[in-house]
Specification:
The chain is of the alpha/beta class. The chain contains ten helices and ten strands. Strands 6-7-8-3-9-10 form a six-stranded mixed beta sheet, with helices on both faces. α3 crosses α4 (about 120-135), α3 runs parallel beside α6 (about 155-165) and α4 packs across α6 (about 155-165). Residues about 1-5 have low confidence and may be disordered. Bound molecules: adenosine-5'-diphosphate (ADP) and magnesium ion. The site of magnesium ion has 3 residues, from α1. Belongs to the ABC transporter superfamily. Its EC number is 7.6.2.9.
């Protein structure tokens, strides 16, 4: 269970808040338009929608890899654009489809990169690696000294998750994190990840084009149409039972 000190998370202050967020790239492409969305503490929120609809851009506005053209993105009430980007990214883990582990560093070195940069001593960092590898289901004694090329796709994603969690960020952004994992491994990883997320109480924004993944894992699902326009925000049961409009109905239908 998520450690909910706030007894009812539906009345809790949002941890992340989009207010009329808009992103128009220099090319003129409007990736996100008029986005209003609250992400509550400890929830796993899935963002779904067709390819090119603005999911990744939405996510990347949270950790400032993309700057909103107008509107705001707030983290714990603070406009992310007014926070130092490095400090911001320490509070926000980020996992993408191909996690981009450093190829010439071992698993242990990959996971401890940020803690070491923050000045953790070797012993503390080593203890943290053990804890994290256990958490993601990799035996530290076996995997700690391996290099990325000695891992399967699923194992690499596990290391990516461990690395993203290294300094205990309250927020995790995940962009198609299981997309490159074989179907069997993917299901296991999804279930294990959900357990980890609930244990730690991490707030997660999960981007996926897989409606089944969204529905089975998320507390709430956001369906976006082109230009990052919100078509529906609902818990999975409501989403499936009462699609808000023809777009949502078609999207959740075609994805299954
Ligand atoms: P999704 O993740 O849902 O597939 P994206 O957020 O990646 O969608 O992209 C949304 C739209 O913005 C697309 O039309 C895409 O081509 C455009 N886009 C994304 N990133 C950039 C960029 N860096 N420069 C210009 N256009 C971009
Ligand atoms: Mg994307």
């Amino acid at each position: 269970m998520a450690p909910t000190t706030d007894s009812d998370s539906s009345t809790a202050e949002p941890l992340i808040r989009f207010r009329a967020a808009r992103k128009e790239f220099a090319s003129g492409a409007v990736a996100v338009e008029g986005l209003d969305l609250d992400v509550l503490p400890h929830e796993l929120l899935a963002l779904v929608g067709p390819s090119g609809c603005g999911k990744s851009t939405t996510l990347r506005m949270v950790n400032r890899l993309v700057e909103p053209s107008s509107g705001q993105v707030l983290l714990e009430g603070e406009d992310v654009m007014s926070v130092d980007a490095v400090a911001l990214r320490r509070r926000i883990g980020y996992v993408i489809q191909h996690v981009g582990l450093f190829p010439h560093r071992t698993v242990t070195q990959n996971v401890t990169t940020v803690p070491r940069l923050l000045g953790w001593d070797k012993r503390r960092a080593a203890a943290r690696v053990e804890e994290l590898l256990d958490l993601v289901g990799l035996d530290p004694a076996t995997y700690g000294r391996r290099y990325p090329h000695e891992l399967s796709g699923g194992e690499r994603q596990r290391v990516g998750v461990a690395r993203a969690l290294a300094v205990d960020p309250p927020v995790l952004l995940m962009d198609e994190p299981f997309g490159a994992v074989d179907p069997e491994g993917r299901r296991r990883l999804q279930v294990e990840f959900r357990r980890i997320q609930q244990t730690l109480g991490t707030t997660v924004m999960l981007v996926t084009h897989d409606i089944d993944e969204a529905v089975s894992l998320a507390d709430r699902v956001v369906v976006l149409s082109r230009g990052g326009v919100v078509e529906q925000v609902a818990d999975p049961v409501t989403l499936l039972a009462r699609p808000a409009n023809a777009f949502v109905e078609q999207f959740i239908g075609t994805g299954r």
